[in-house]
Automatic annotation (TrEMBL):
Gene Ontology cellular component terms for the protein in this record: membrane
Chief localisation class: membrane
Cofactors (names): FAD
Domain (FAD-binding FR-type): residue spans on this chain: 207-307
Record keyword Transmembrane present: yes
Transmembrane segments: 9-27, 39-59, 79-99, 111-138, 150-170, 182-202
Gene Ontology MF terms: 2 iron, 2 sulfur cluster binding; flavin adenine dinucleotide binding; metal ion binding; oxidoreductase activity
Alphabetized UniProt keyword annotations: 2Fe-2S, FAD, Flavoprotein, Iron, Iron-sulfur, Membrane, Metal-binding, Oxidoreductase, Transmembrane, Transmembrane helix
Source organism per UniProt: Phytohabitans flavus
UniProt name for this protein: Oxidoreductase
Localization per record: Membrane
């Protein structure tokens, strides 16, 4: 079984096992004072279970990340988040209606009465924070906010988490059993430990140990620059070709500005290299990063590596600056390899001389595909199923690694499925934070 499939099976088996225990505990100890409150407690219990899963998905645990990929974990986190919001609304509604029925008073009066109880008030505050953050995470709103602003507001969820935990501790009525209470808080302890380890302890320790520093800044073209990073004991950094880091340049951009850039060269134990195109403020300013300045690095992250390769032969497809992880992968030894590099013009082909030298050294085939998509007669559609099959006759027998603009990546993946390339042989990753 592929390593990604093993990781997914392990994660979801743990989730299902936990939910089965939760269901048992609820059936045994979760009865409320009336049927409405019982339903409200049911949703409250599962709201907490969903929050546990949400934390694990974004804890950036190395074992999960390099087997599943941050992009996929983040997508799961986003979609499960919608379920969390609806579960929260249902929990709140049934609790208010349940207590209103119990006290024979209008729901609004019940709401005001509960707001005067510390445990209930804490739950309400946590709920408001979650709903506010959920509203700014709707795609229409999210696309209109700078990443830094969205991320800063999103961090309020940790405040909601802390308040929610105190709310649960004060309530203390769900489980009338010592061992059930011990189990519940033990799981919470493990989840919080995973979060602190992945998001705080590991990054801080690695930066203190490796002491990353800018060694050189090399312009590759008018709008592309490479930054070389050195440090201590880099041979012990568990990075692989195809992975990416989250880079911060505190003395240049400030701590709040973080950018995910993949390695544009395979890690060699002595230095790291990122290559970026000037798109936003962060990447555009890299050309001016002072040599010798300190760098705060998080990672390595990503499942876009050869540990997922299932066949000896491979096809590497890149579009634009998406060539950076592909160029790194080309350094790794392997079987027959073909590289398709999609750019509008040859002049836009970043790192082309390096690619040509690497391809020659490895005996790999390199094709630069130019021109605008759809132009000409017949239309220029290099990644159409028929064209891919003609260029790579044995494509079904290869692992395919794809990195480029989302539209190109989607088109390639669609064509690969049309050609019958098994899903386990298709590797595509989006390098982004949200």
């Amino acid at each position: 079984m592929a390593v990604g499939a093993v990781a997914r099976a392990a994660l979801w088996t743990a989730v299902v096992a936990h939910l089965l225990v939760v269901e048992y505990l609820f059936i045994r100890y979760g009865q409320g004072k009336n049927s409405l409150l019982t339903v409200g407690k049911f949703f409250g219990l599962h709201l907490a279970a969903i929050m546990m899963l949400q934390i694990v998905l974004v804890a950036r645990l190395p074992w999960l990340d390099r087997r599943i990929g941050m992009d996929r974990l983040t997508v799961w986190h986003r979609w499960i988040g919608f379920g969390l919001v609806w579960t929260l609304i249902l929990h709140f509604t049934f609790i208010i209606v349940g207590y209103a029925d119990l006290a024979s008073q209008p729901p609004w009066d019940t709401f005001l009465s509960l707001a005067g109880v510390t445990a209930s008030l804490l739950g309400m505050v946590a709920a408001v924070i979650i709903l506010v953050v959920a509203s700014i995470s709707v795609r229409y709103v999210r696309r209109r906010l700078p990443y830094e602003a969205w991320h800063g507001l999103h961090l309020l969820l940790y405040v909601a988490l802390g308040i929610g935990l105190v709310h649960q501790a004060f309530e203390g009525t769900t489980f009338d059993s010592t061992w059930a209470t011990v189990y519940w808080w033990s799981v919470w302890g493990l989840v919080l430990a995973a979060l602190l380890a992945g998001r705080v302890a590991v990054p801080v320790w690695r930066n203190l140990y490796h002491r990353f520093t800018v060694a050189a800044v090399v312009p590759e073209s008018d709008n592309v620059v490479s930054v070389h990073i050195t440090g201590q004991h880099l041979d012990k950094l568990p990075a692989r070709a195809g992975q990416f880091f989250i880079w911060r340049f505190p003395g240049h951009h400030g701590w709040w500005r973080a950018n995910p850039f993949s390695l544009s060269a395979a890690p060699n134990g002595r230095s790291l290299r990122l290559t970026a195109k000037a798109v936003g403020k962060g990447s555009a300013g890299l050309r001016n990063v002072p040599v010798g300045s300190r760098v705060f690095v998080e990672g390595p992250y990503g499942a876009f590596t050869t540990i997922h390769q299932t066949r000896p032969a491979s096809l590497l497809i890149a579009g634009g600056v998406g060539i950076t992880p592909i160029r790194a992968l080309l350094e790794e030894p392997g079987g027959p390899t073909t590289v398709l590099y999609r750019v509008h013009t040859v002049e836009e082909a970043v790192l082309l001389p390096e690619l040509q030298a690497l391809a020659k050294a490895r005996g790999a085939q390199l094709y630069v595909l130019t021109g605008r998509t759809g132009a000409g007669t017949p239309p220029n559609v290099p990644f159409a199923p028929a064209n891919l099959a003609a260029a790579i006759p044995d494509i079904v027998q290869r692992d395919v690694f794809v990195c480029g603009p989302p539209a190109m990546t989607d088109a390639v993946v669609h064509s690969l499925r049309a050609l019958g390339v098994p899903r386990r042989q298709v590797h595509a990753e989006k390098f982004s934070l949200a």
